[in-house]
Design goal:
The structure is a homodimer.
Chain A lengths: L15 H22 L3 E7 L5 H9 L7 E5 L14 H4 L8 E5 L2 H8 L6 H20 L3 E8 L2 H13 L9 H8 L1 H14 L7 E5 L3 H29 L31 H25 L3 E7 L5 H9 L7 E5 L5 H4 L5 H5 L7 E5 L8 H4 L5 H21 L2 E8 L2 H13 L9 H8 L1 H15 L6 E5 L3 H19 L1
Parallel strand pairs in A: 1-3, 1-4, 2-3, 4-5, 6-8, 6-9, 7-8, 9-10
Helix pairs in contact in A: 1-9, 4-8, 5-15, 10-19, 11-19
Amino acid sequence: MLNDLNMKQRMDKEHWEAVREELQNKLTVLQQRIYKLKIPVVIVMEGWGASGKGGMISRLIYNLDPRHFSVYSIDPPSPDDKRYPWMRRFWMKLPTYGDMAIFDRSWYQELAVYEAGKLNAHEMARRYNQIEDFERQITDDGYVLLKFFLHITKGEQKRRLKTLESKKETRWRVTKADWMHHEQYGKYLQRFEEMIEQTDRMGAKWTLIEANNKRFATYKVFSTVINALNQAIEAKEALAEQNRPTGQIRTSADIVTQPIKRLREVELNCELDEQTYKTELAECKRKLFLLHNRLYQKKIPVILAFEGWDAAGKGGNIKRITQGLDPRGYEVIPVAAPSTLEKNHPHLWRFWNALPRDGHIAVFDRTWYGRVMVEHIEGFCTQAQWERAYDEINRFEKQLSQWGAIILKFWLHIDKEEQLKRFQVRQNTPEKQYKITDEDWRNREKWDEYEKAVDEMLARTNTRQAPWMIIESNNKRFARIKTQKAIIQAMEDRL
Amino acid sequence: MLNDLNMKQRMDKEHWEAVREELQNKLTVLQQRIYKLKIPVVIVMEGWGASGKGGMISRLIYNLDPRHFSVYSIDPPSPDDKRYPWMRRFWMKLPTYGDMAIFDRSWYQELAVYEAGKLNAHEMARRYNQIEDFERQITDDGYVLLKFFLHITKGEQKRRLKTLESKKETRWRVTKADWMHHEQYGKYLQRFEEMIEQTDRMGAKWTLIEANNKRFATYKVFSTVINALNQAIEAKEALAEQNRPTGQIRTSADIVTQPIKRLREVELNCELDEQTYKTELAECKRKLFLLHNRLYQKKIPVILAFEGWDAAGKGGNIKRITQGLDPRGYEVIPVAAPSTLEKNHPHLWRFWNALPRDGHIAVFDRTWYGRVMVEHIEGFCTQAQWERAYDEINRFEKQLSQWGAIILKFWLHIDKEEQLKRFQVRQNTPEKQYKITDEDWRNREKWDEYEKAVDEMLARTNTRQAPWMIIESNNKRFARIKTQKAIIQAMEDRL
């Protein structure tokens, strides 16, 4: 397909300066508008070595307000990057709503060049799926995504590398790798074509740029960007008027859920006496410590997600788990309402940011399920957003599992009477009063609504790779031991 | 001094469990209190290999609320760490007010073990000074800093390494480096002693722990922590009543400032005609691009700090600089009011976070001088805080300069009439209205107050390593060219 491009395309030199200036000015005005409308933009600049990616980016940003765009130069992943799911570093670079991020090379270069030789077909296919997830989630979320591939012919590439080498100031920019890639032009052509074919989709289309002639390339890139921004602005303004939902609800054919009890079916009168509890807790602690040690050496990450009713005992349960662990190998992540910065990103962004490194255990005290529970019920997000969230969450967890993580999700369940009892104790015990707020009482009034949402959440996100476990927590001792045994079981199964 | 410790100290095994539990419970209660009082705590756990640092930390955190402490294991600096000032990674790990950070090894291990052989005496002395700055700034800011050194004898170390090696589960934890260090026990003893001697100061005292006996060591560490927290709580509560300023104003004998004009002495009627401007701008752009290229190769970082009156033209000035640069080598950092997270850290924390990597240019659109200007005048910080800030800022910049950075600070100066003219234009031009707010008008009313604060700021922080330059900005063309020429000059001087 790249070979089919008409590489003879060119723009006249005459009047070019004026044309370019006009394009740049148009873009400047559009930048202000997308900033005000809070439309985020991601521009991917891919292409051959010496195809002019850097210069193109310079021209794009020439007249832009530097406070509202960032340029990221994507080198091969660092050793630290490699301790996380590979897409994490790109997630972390997503611009805030209203800002623009320009990628000088991207996840595509990583796949087609940096890692290409090292990954088998199965892993490659997986990664293409993960790219699809990423791009779909951000475009559903309102991001404008523009992907450019700057194509030059082999002859042109040779000419350019030679020119760079001939000048003192630019010689250092030509590396051995550049010449190696040049010699294997054919092989890379095939890889690039495959990459483009696999990832050319609605909302995330590629624009191929005939870049032998710089002026033509510049004209085409600018026109495409200007066009896309105009469309996005129009869509957003129309949306504001009609409050139409964005994003499509996607059916998750490849996500298989497993049956799980509804909350009302859960038998809560489980008991565990103090003596048995102490003995079992000590035994669990010993096992957890040793298992974590082995997981650490094998670099297997563990993600433990805690949700549950207010006062169900999340804090105490988590503490009993971490007490046995080496403090250098785990983190507890308390999840509160999102900050302003977090609200100006896709809802999963902050959880990508909180992932453990391989070999570490991350314990989430509340989780990414906030969107389908509190945010849904309190109206902090639109219906389209929380409905879409089920699929986004399932895919997020799938990706973590493909990375190699052990994922367990716990719903700490108590009944309404038990909650009342605990609330009252908190109210009446001075050193516990800080644990109870008016909000807790307000949430309690919506118990039935929450129960319905939780049932739906459990049913729609109970997958094999990231199963839910309902923990009967009227008796705290029973709850803690059940939780720990489940964790131990999952770790042993893996090792 | 380590050799003088009485290494025979021990605690009886009898009742030990009960004693330890009591200590842990006391600490739990204290943790809740420091959290409520927003007292941040930094605990440094240093010591020999196999001296029990990890176990000690486990016992410390055993019963703590995991949402309010973090444990950091400090390995040798990564390649990425090495692209920043060496203390940056520790600055970045400072706990939020009310939280606790426990360092398993720290900046001390980095100096005395990881980097010791590689640094000359001059650089070592510098780094000790930088440690002093860091520790003084955070304790002035209200952090409780506790530094422990776990000392064991050579014989005891050997026994412990052998024991670790004898068990299958722990064998992997003993490395070649551990045995190498053991063999050079004498050399490291000397280094550790020097390190302790150099950095044992009021407010940042070392506590040496006789750690041959684990129970004794545990008892001493816990008692010290409990004691210090109690004192800090008492001090903070007394403070709340009397609103006494914390921290001492430090005289900066080693910071030399240079004379600079007062704002009223600055002649503002500088002019530059359009044609000369265009020619000079093009020439500056060419030079800047080439110079940046060379700085990039030599890995020299550049920090450009912009302050000035509202509407003085910071944005336009900055844009003219960046337009000539390779977008992959610079960042513009717009500085707004601090976020909640930033407010819960020392005021310089967010600027440490925004430092460029070596070879990059960071352009700050407003800076760390907010504390002595807007925060001072609007009463967002106490008098003690902004008075202390002059010294903190000078030391911050000194450290950046020692790291190798070129630092230039620009005050964009206009007079009151010019500001009024520009405000009115903004008010009356629809596409510029977003640039003018009520706050701008309010600030304008305080012009004289600001002028006084700026004069003091310029006088007290105009150092050789980080000079201020007053840019006459009534004429924007003149201002831009003067700024760029100054940058070019500084770069050429360095190369």
